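From: lab user (bench 3)
To: helpdesk
Subject: output format question, protein + zinc ion

Hello, I'm new to running complex predictions and I'm not sure whether the block I got back is the full result or only part of it. Here's what I submitted:
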Amino acid sequence: MFTPDLSGLQACIDDVKAASLDSDSGPPEPTAFPSLMQRLETSRALLPKVFQISTADPFISSLNGIGETGYVQTLATDPTREGTAGLLLDIAQAILQKGEGYSPDATDAFLEVVADLYDGFLSAEDRSGIKMPERVIVPPMVKWGNPDFGPYTWPFDATNHFGVKNAVVSMPPSNTRSGLMAWSALGHETCGHDVLHANAGLQGEIARLVRAALAKEPPLDDKHTHLSSYWATRIDETSSDVMGILNMGPAAAIGLVAYFRGLSAGAGSPAKLRRDGPADDPHPADSLRGYLAAATLRLLSFSDREGWAKAIEAQTDHDVGAGNSVRVAGNKITQEQAKISARIVAETIAAAPTHILNHHSLLDIQDWRDSDEQIVVALRTALLSGNNPSAAFQPGVYATHVVAAATTAALAGAAAPALLFRRMIQMLKALSTRNPTWGPLAIVHRGSIARDFVRQQGFSASQAEILLVVCQELEVLDTFAPPLTDANGNPTGSALGTRIDQTFIDIDNSDKKKPGTKARLAIFTDNIKKRLASSDLDLEPQELVRGDFKTVDLLVFHIQTA
Ligand SMILES: [Zn+2]
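Helpdesk reply: Thanks, we reran it on our side. This is the complete output you should expect:
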């Protein structure tokens, strides 16, 4: 059987430890309100369009709303920066750091990874006929800071207090230059927390399923262990681990082991996964997370899954120590109970169909296949052979693969983590320069164009033609200011970013008052299908009314890729 090469594991742990001892806290906190507002305005203009609309504009207008007094008060009432002030300052830093060019290559690399991770779930959901998260489709912003907190995220339901429409993910500033394994943890934050919070009700449903699955196993879940409650009340963190692995494969699983060991070493403890999971910790015990990672890998489709799962289980066994128990919220469980419960939890989270996802499982949405492994092998060779970022410019290659390649190359001891880190950043930066999400068209949800496409449908009208038809038909439907088409009927420069969701809602409402006539939205969708000669195009009036397409470009991309 395949056995992964982990001869570089110690070097990776040392790299995490060194990064965790680096106390660089990044750019200082902005204090004076007027200068903050000025800097935000300047930075706003330099952001990709997508972040101007979804992050900077609503945030600046929220701050104008609370004014200097509100700002000073907010900062004063949250001195530890773990509540509202922490959130406010993190959104500000995300805008300022991107606009002012703080560690620009690492920032662009970070943005590229989280956008890809986020997109991976969304695009696959879209394709499998599973409903999109109704809350947010814009990729997260990123920032550097708070070294003591490690990687973390403010999901959409938090940032939305300031009107912001996307999550903000943070990493310690030392991870701009070292601590490779922290990057493999980004799947946990972004595919995990951010996607979970974007699907209202998903967490609750998964928690109920996990509780029920464990409660069926009396030797596991009894009055001595309370295991079903233990896992169910940690579902946000537990599902995030599982979802990170579904999206990044074995690199996320072994990266977690190396990362935790390095952090423990940095904190002056032995470089081991901890056996104790305190009652007040929302995360399961480290060792349970090791077993959970191994069990999740076994559910993926790639051929080497069993070899990887065994290796991670062995690393976890080693840290628990033969005959030792694991403590869950004060209760002792055996190693065997830990493993079996982790397997049941992984299977439930990954493979159980949920109502929220139209009876699909998370594994239906995202899997790690041999084709992903082949891409990672090719990228590893490119990373090791020298500075060749363009190796990533191949169809099907995404930022997630680049992080997986750097992580597994370092773990195999193929090169020093520091060297692989630098080359990974260059490769990710190169990828980001080719990503239309960051361009002037504010294209979000890029993955629906290409990622993991199993089957291209027979629809070939070019984007320009679709844009032309959509703009002309929209102009028939309503009057837009500024107009979507010029005197010759061609789309104008500002057409792509124009908001259209309210138009659809208004027209639908007014047509409902006039029964008997054919609804204008039905005429609109029929005309588009007719003119593009695509009668089986998936575009229905109710999708328009539901607000799936907030702007012209989203509608165009839906048509292009549906
Ligand atoms: Zn977490």
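A quick orientation on your result: Residues 72 and 511 are 48 Å apart (CA to CA). Let us know if anything else is unclear.
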